[in-house]
C-alpha cells in the first residue's frame, strides 16, 4: 500500500478502496484530509503548543475522535486535561480500552476508579473475538500463546480488537499516550500522524518528559495504576511487563530482554497483513502435508 500522505489531499477515512467519500449529502466530501505540506505545517505549529491547546485543536477540528488507552499515566493525564477544557465546544471524546484478558488486577481496578472519577466519559472495552475471560482465550488459542507465537498473540489480543473498534465506532482519529521520552521507536514522534490505513493519530503529550507527566498527576490528583509505586513505569500485560531499574528507559520493562518495543496497534498494518498471509500459507502447507501422509498410509 502506498504512503498515507500525498501531495494531493488524502481522506482520513479507511483507505482500503483508495478513496473515502464523506457524508451522504451532496456534494460528497471526505471527512478530513491532509496534503504533505499541510501535515508538515500542522506539526510545525502544534509542536509549539501545550498539550491542552493541542487537545482543544483536536476537539474542534477532528470528527470521529476517540482516545485509545491502556490507562497508562500519559493517557490518564490527557483524559484529565480533556475533562477540564473550557470553551464553547464541550469535549466529547470516548475511550477505547483493549482488554487483552491478560491485564494486571491493578489495571482493571484502575479502570473502575476512572469510571467513577470521570463519570461523563464512555469507555468502550474490546476483547479478543469470542472471548470473555482468559480461560476462553486459552481454550481457543492454546496456553501461553504469547510465548509460542508472539505475532499471533499481538494480532488476536490487540490488533484485531482495535480494528473492530475503529470499524464499529466509525473512528477517524485517535488520541494516544505516546511520548518521545519513552524511547525506542517513539523517539521521533510527530504530534499528528496518519497511518497507512488512513487513521489520524495525535500524540498530544509527545513533548513531555516522564517527570512532567508525574508532576501533573500529583498536582491534579489524577488516579493512576498502583503498580507505578512498585517500580513500574509502563504497564501492559502481566506476562510481558516488569519493573525497571534506575537509568533504564521508561518502557524498558515491556518485553524485557527483547528487541520488541511496541504491542502491535502502533505497528504498520501491512506488517500484520503479511503475518496473516504467512499464517495462511503455513495452514495450507500443513493441510497438504497431512494429505500426502494420508496417501502414503493408504499405499
Describe this structure in words.
This protein is α/β, with parallel strands linked by helices. It folds into two domains: 10-263, HUPs (Rossmann fold), CATH 3.40.50; 268-299. Helix content is 39%, strand content 9%. It has helices at 36-46, 51-61, 73-83, 105-117, 134-141, 145-148, 150-168, 210-220, 269-298, and strands spanning 10-11, 33-34, 65-68, 94-98, 123-126, 173-175, 192-194, 200-202. β7 and β8 (200-202) form a beta hairpin. The longest helix has 30 residues, at 269-298. The radius of gyration is 21 Å and the shape is globular. Belongs to the PAPS reductase family. CysH subfamily. It catalyses: [thioredoxin]-disulfide + sulfite + adenosine 3',5'-bisphosphate + 2 H(+) = [thioredoxin]-dithiol + 3'-phosphoadenylyl sulfate. Residues 1-27 are annotated as: Disordered.
Largest sheet: spatial strand order: 5-4-3-6-8-7
- Round the Cα radius of gyration to an integer and report it: 21 Å
Shape assignment:
globular
Number of helices: 9
The helix content is 25-40%
User: In percent terms, what proportion of residues is strand?
Assistant: 5-15%
Report the major sheet.
6 strands, mixed
| The level-1 CATH class of the largest domain | Alpha Beta
Terminal Cα span: 47 Å
Secondary-structure-based class equals alpha/beta
Amino acid at each position: 500500500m502506498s504512503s498515507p500522505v500525498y501531495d494531493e489531499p488524502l481522506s482520513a477515512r479507511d483507505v482500503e478502496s483508495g478513496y473515502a467519500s464523506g457524508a451522504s449529502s451532496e456534494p460528497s466530501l471526505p471527512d478530513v484530509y491532509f496534503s504533505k505540506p499541510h501535515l508538515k505545517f500542522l506539526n510545525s505549529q502544534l509542536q509549539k503548543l501545550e498539550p491542552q491547546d493541542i487537545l482543544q485543536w483536536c476537539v474542534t477540528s477532528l470528527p470521529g475522535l476517540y482516545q485509545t488507552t491502556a490507562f497508562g499515566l500519559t493517557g490518564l493525564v490527557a483524559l484529565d486535561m480533556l475533562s477540564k477544557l473550557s470553551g464553547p465546544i464541550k469535549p466529547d471524546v470516548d475511550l477505547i480500552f483493549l482488554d487483552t484478558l491478560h491485564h494486571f488486577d491493578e489495571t482493571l481496578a484502575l479502570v473502575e476508579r476512572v469510571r467513577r472519577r470521570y463519570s461523563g466519559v464512555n469507555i468502550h472495552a474490546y476483547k479478543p473475538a469470542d472471548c470473555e475471560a482468559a480461560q476462553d482465550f486459552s481454550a481457543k488459542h492454546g496456553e501461553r500463546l504469547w510465548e509460542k507465537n508472539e505475532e499471533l498473540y499481538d494480532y488476536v489480543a490487540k490488533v484485531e480488537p482495535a480494528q473492530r473498534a475503529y470499524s464499529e465506532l466509525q473512528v477517524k482519529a485517535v488520541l494516544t499516550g505516546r511520548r518521545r521520552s519513552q524511547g525506542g521507536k517513539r523517539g521521533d514522534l510527530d504530534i499528528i500522524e496518519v497511518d497507512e490505513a488512513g487513521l489520524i493519530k495525535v500524540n498530544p503529550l509527545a513533548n513531555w518528559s516522564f517527570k512532567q507527566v508525574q508532576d501533573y498527576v500529583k498536582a491534579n490528583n489524577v488516579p493512576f495504576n498502583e503498580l507505578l509505586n512498585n517500580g513500574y513505569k509502563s504497564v501492559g500485560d502481566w506476562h510481558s511487563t516488569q519493573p525497571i531499574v534506575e537509568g533504564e528507559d521508561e518502557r524498558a520493562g515491556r518485553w524485557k530482554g527483547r528487541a520488541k518495543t511496541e504491542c502491535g496497534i502502533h505497528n504498520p498494518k501491512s506488517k500484520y497483513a503479511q503475518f496473516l498471509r504467512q499464517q495462511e500459507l503455513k495452514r495450507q502447507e500443513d493441510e497438504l502435508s497431512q494429505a500426502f501422509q494420508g496417501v502414503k498410509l493408504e499405499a
